[in-house]
Specification:
CATH architecture of the largest domain: 3-Layer(aba) Sandwich
Number of helices: 8
Number of domains: 2
Strand content: 25-35%
Strand order of the largest sheet: 1-2-4-3-5-6-7-10
Shape: globular
Structural class: alpha/beta
CATH superfamily of the largest domain: Alpha/Beta hydrolase fold, catalytic domain
Number of strands: 18
CATH class of the largest domain: Alpha Beta
Length: about 400
């Protein structure tokens, strides 16, 4: 999807001293949350098309960001009532978000599903159609009644395992023509589910696009679907995950299932395409750390990092006093493996400050040759100070 404009990238540069979100979206500012259950589809009225909407009690803000969380369960089991869904939604609603836990269609035949890639693709595409219907429901509400009081520029989607897979594919598969036709004709399958990637779950006439992804143990079937205009993503993943491979491999390590690539391999492609991303790697951890919600410290850690990542891409969060991405500065190579060189036309560099994605200052430099050899892979920002200006540039190490 072609959503990450320069203006939205600019909001990533929200160093803490310039935060403009009125104290919201970081700390817990509401004590209680109300939960309402609705059918989100105007085509299907069944359990698979229900969602729970978590709203902070007593909130008077007219435009709030939205997080949509999808449960895991290998596209075979699970629901919006899973512990991780409830804990995630309460966590974000108490910080001022509208939080949604949504059901979606599953396969009802575990044996056939594990053996038939046609069924696997069909099931994922139906889940994608359902998520897109949720997004359209939110935007339809904004236009028709505005009960939810949301900011349509601040809708994020993700989840755990199958839920994360659904969100990633919903964002990074742009056209039916991107899908393969051999050995499985996935384009034909998609055409039979509503005739387009928008699917068959209703609320048509509204955009299904959202602004960013959070992935807990999720992956992408084909890394070539990532392009330079795609959405930012935060991903938490265990290196010993044998369900959704941390790098790339068939789901459940079964030769009959579709390949999925986790953040271990995805990060290289994200970096090469200049996509804003951050990762939380759990060394030696398997697939199931989110199951018990905040009863697992890894899940709590993922919540904290997700909160920080989303906070930095909220439109309310702006940085003042910088020239962003000035053409007077050339940085190369970018993305880089280790070293970058800075060229500044008609000016002299006084100081270079290096920040991480969350605005934490890492070091100062005065040389225009900078080594990132001791930095982990990810996104960084250079504040280039001259006599007359402060220029901010994004750098990605992979």
């Amino acid at each position: 999807m072609k959503l990450l404009s320069s203006l939205l990238i600019f909001t990533l540069l929200s160093f803490r001293i310039f935060a403009q979100c009125d104290g919201r979206y970081q700390d817990e500012i509401f004590n209680t949350v109300s939960v309402n259950t609705v059918y989100y589809s105007d085509v299907y009225f069944d359990e698979s098309h229900k969602m729970d909407i978590y709203l902070p009690d007593g909130d008077t803000v007219a435009e709030r960001p939205v997080v949509v969380y999808l449960f895991g369960g290998a596209f075979l089991t699970g629901s919006k009532n899973n512990t991780d869904c409830v804990d995630f939604c309460n966590y974000f609603a108490k910080r001022g978000y509208v939080a949604i836990a949504a059901n979606y269609r599953l396969s009802n035949n575990p044996i056939l599903f594990s053996l038939d890639q046609n069924l696997q693709y069909s099931t994922v595409l139906k889940a994608m159609a359902d998520l897109k219907s949720v997004i359209r429901y939110i935007k339809k509400d904004y236009i028709q009644s505005n009960i939810l009081k949301i900011d349509t520029n601040s809708i994020f989607a993700g989840g755990y395992s199958a839920g994360a897979v659904t969100a990633i594919h919903s964002a990074y598969v742009d056209n039916i023509s991107d899908l393969p036709i051999s050995p499985v004709n996935v384009q034909s399958i998609a055409n039979n589910i509503g005739g387009s990637l928008e699917g068959d779950a209703g609320n048509f006439g509204y955009s299904s696009r959202f602004k960013g992804i959070f992935s807990y143990a999720g992956g992408l079937n084909d890394l070539s679907w990532i392009d330079s205009d795609d959405e930012p993503i935060f991903a938490a993943h265990g290196t010993n995950d044998n369900v959704v491979n941390f790098n790339c491999g068939p789901a459940f390590n079964l030769i009959t299932t579709l390949d999925l690539c986790g953040i271990g391999e995805m990060s290289n492609v994200l970096a090469a395409n200049g996509i804003i991303y951050d990762e939380l790697v759990f060394n030696g951890i398997d697939h199931y750390w989110p199951v018990n919600g905040t009863g697992n410290s890894n899940f709590s850690n993922a919540l904290l990092n997700t909160k920080n990542f989303l906070y930095d891409i909220l439109p309310c969060n702006t940085t003042l006093g910088f020239i962003y991405n000035s053409k007077t500065v050339n940085i190369y190579p970018n993305p880089t493996l280790n070293n970058i060189h800075i060229e500044l036309n008609n000016n002299v560099i006084k100081l270079i400050n290096i920040y991480d994605l969350y605005g934490n200052k890492l070091e100062e430099q005065t040389s225009n040759n900078i080594s990132l050899v001791n930095y982990s892979n990810g996104t960084y920002f250079l504040e280039i100070l001259t006599k007359n200006s402060s220029i901010l540039k994004k750098v990605i190490k992979y």
